[in-house]
Amino acid sequence: MRILTHDDVHAALTPAEAVDALRQALRDGYDPATDQPRTKVPLHRGEMQLLPSTLPRVSGVKILAVQPEDHDPALPLIQGQYLLIDGTTLTPLSLLDGTALTTLRTPAVSLAGVTDFLPGAVSPLKVVIIGTGAQGRGHAVAVESVVGAEGASISFVSRTEADLGHPWLRAGSAEAAAALKAADLVVCATTATSLILARDDVRPDAIIIAVGSHTTDARELASDLMGAAHVIVEDVDAALREAGDVTLAIGEGALAASDLIPMKDVVTGAVELGRDRPIVFKTVGMPWEDLVVADAVYRA
């Protein structure tokens, strides 16, 4: 069994290659509705999450340990590993660093769902990323991997200043509001549990990716934005189980479950979306995504 470290994972596969692997899996016929649900197991302290999935060639499971709210801030909130096994013999093939895999997979999923809607290369893509944590930084790397470093103009918005090699704007400032209003693409990658983005904050044709929340009592996007937008999700049932941005908007009457558009239908072209309103892609993270990217890393 091959042990792949954090650096091994990132050296093996670019974000753009991870995007291609995810899109190809959907084009090849994989249906996320058949995926296994995430299992959450209470521990004496904190929580364990198990994310198993299977494909004909390989199967696997990601095991995550999630710290409680009073955890030591010097330690990562989430730690874990990914076990990849052969689909026929069930022989363990590789153990991959789970944090690196998640950092690679999450922004790759985001870009895989909206790549078809990104503007052409007439001018740099205007991108605003709300949140400067690992996922915010990961999305910046993924955007540049997909459209090229010269093809994107990226700004970060957060409450505390960060030096990330891109312009930083203070959350709530006039400069941040202006950048959001002009952005082609807005990424919400925060730990917020209440609203940080509403309909009037963005352009009428903006693309919004929301990755920060994955419980039904937390959200980043207001109901008026969800109700006005085309809403893409990885899978309808997964969104109804885990996406507060979706369930709270439905509870407030701004959205219906029947309005949700599966990512598979967008990637395969089964559904075409007009650009007369915003496009929201709400992700929660699914086991099949880890498996596809882990397999691509292992083969690379």
UniProtKB/TrEMBL annotation:
<dbReference type="InterPro" id="IPR036291">
    <property type="entry name" value="NAD(P)-bd_dom_sf"/>
</dbReference>
<dbReference type="Pfam" id="PF02423">
    <property type="entry name" value="OCD_Mu_crystall"/>
</dbReference>
<protein>
    <submittedName>
        <fullName>Ornithine cyclodeaminase</fullName>
    </submittedName>
</protein>
<dbReference type="GO" id="GO:0005737">
    <property type="term" value="C:cytoplasm"/>
</dbReference>
<dbReference type="InterPro" id="IPR003462">
    <property type="entry name" value="ODC_Mu_crystall"/>
</dbReference>
<dbReference type="InterPro" id="IPR023401">
    <property type="entry name" value="ODC_N"/>
</dbReference>
